[in-house]
Amino acid sequence: MIKNILSHCVNSLIFISAYWLILCPAQAQSNNDAPVRMAVAGITHGHVSWILSRKKTDLLLVGIYEPNTELAQRLVKQYGLSSSLIYNNLNKMLDAVKPEAVAAFGSILQHMEVVEACAPRHIDVMVEKPLATTLQQALKMETLAKKFNIKLLTDFETSWYPSTVKTYELVNDSNYIGKIKKVVIHDGHEGPKEIGVSKEFLEWLTDPVQNGGGALIDFGCYGANLMTYLMNGEQPLSVTAVTQQFKPDIYPRVDDEATIVVTYPSAQCIIQASWNWPFGRKDMEVYGQKGYVISVNKNNMRLRTKPDSTEHTLQVTSKEVAVYDDPFSYFTDVIHNKIKVPENGVYALKTNVTVVRILEAARESANSGKTVYLGK
């Protein structure tokens, strides 16, 4: 009798497992840690090399959508990939290769198109920063992500920095500096043309529609993202911005210099975004009631707090703090449900809708010459 019951249970489990595999192959893959089937939507962004040259086996590149056939053939040849991966129609690619996830490397405006195509197909998406060019787009993308229950992440280089995570820990977990009062964030470089980005990248990066602006969007988004993260998602009260064109002969349609002041009930953030720095930089100063934390770069920091008041230097790596130094490893682990994106984390949808809200207010402020007050 017991033997018959056990036999029946085993057979039932086998049947249920087979049924589950048929209905939910993606979930079965995730549970087995099979490589994530990932496609790329757009390859005009200079950072696309991060995924095209990647050698790790946690993802399998199954398709590349790019309407610029010459560019697609050139990059496929450059990275030693098969030309069979190339599609010039996004929907046809998604239906043909059936990816679990898509990484968007086109213009910021094209992020909307990617999410509109992927969400109804239940395909997770990660876009390059920022999430969208307008708040209207960002809110629509958020609605689609929630409606179809997809993961929608935004990738920032500073998300991989050990110093970013360590700063958060010192500010929010250890109370090292006390309550935040002022944050100053510097991001940018000499200018996209000056550093030699590709013609395809430069074309949309300097387009006010495709990119949403110039340095204000390209590098202002870093500061908006980091401050929203440090403030645990708290919404700002107001945004004031000034933009200028120091190089109108090179960038006639967009700003190349921007300063954004974001205020909160008890804190202030100054974001300095520029295509005019004498060198590339991504650094941050966080000042609290009793000390400060300065991230000089991704690994090196300067710290000072009361009562000691002596400045100390600190070098941090991914061995000392829990940070992914590869955004695609992070994305695949999120897809495999190994980790959950924190609601107010740097990659999080909620955080990055706030980023776009700040950037849109900054653009409005710069155009009007007035402070923009944000409703709750």
Tell me what you see in this structure.
This protein has 376 residues and is of the alpha/beta class. It has 2 domains: 31-156, NAD(P)-binding Rossmann-like Domain (Rossmann fold), CATH 3.40.50.720; 158-324 and 348-373, Dihydrodipicolinate Reductase, domain 2 (2-Layer Sandwich), CATH 3.30.360. Helices cover 36% and strands 22% of the residues. The protein has helices at residues 2-23, 25-32, 49-52, 69-78, 90-97, 110-118, 135-147, 162-173, 199-205, 215-218, 220-230, 327-335, 349-368; strands at 36-41, 59-65, 86-87, 101-104, 124-128, 152-155, 180-188, 238-244, 257-263, 268-274, 281-288, 291-295, 300-305, 312-315, 372-373. The strands form 2 sheets. Strands 14-13-12-11-7-10-9-8-15 form a 9-stranded mixed β-sheet. A 6-stranded parallel β-sheet has the order 3-2-1-4-5-6. Strand 11 (281-288) and strand 12 (291-295) form a beta hairpin. Helix 1 crosses helix 2, helix 7 (135-147) runs antiparallel to helix 13 (349-368) and helix 11 crosses helix 13. The longest helix is centred in the first third of the chain and has 22 residues, at 2-23. It starts with a helix and ends with a strand. The relative contact order is 0.14. Residues 1-30 have low confidence and may be disordered.
List keywords for this structure.
Rossmann fold; Dihydrodipicolinate Reductase, domain 2; globular; 13 helices; disordered N terminus; 376 residues; single chain; 22% strand; six-stranded parallel sheet
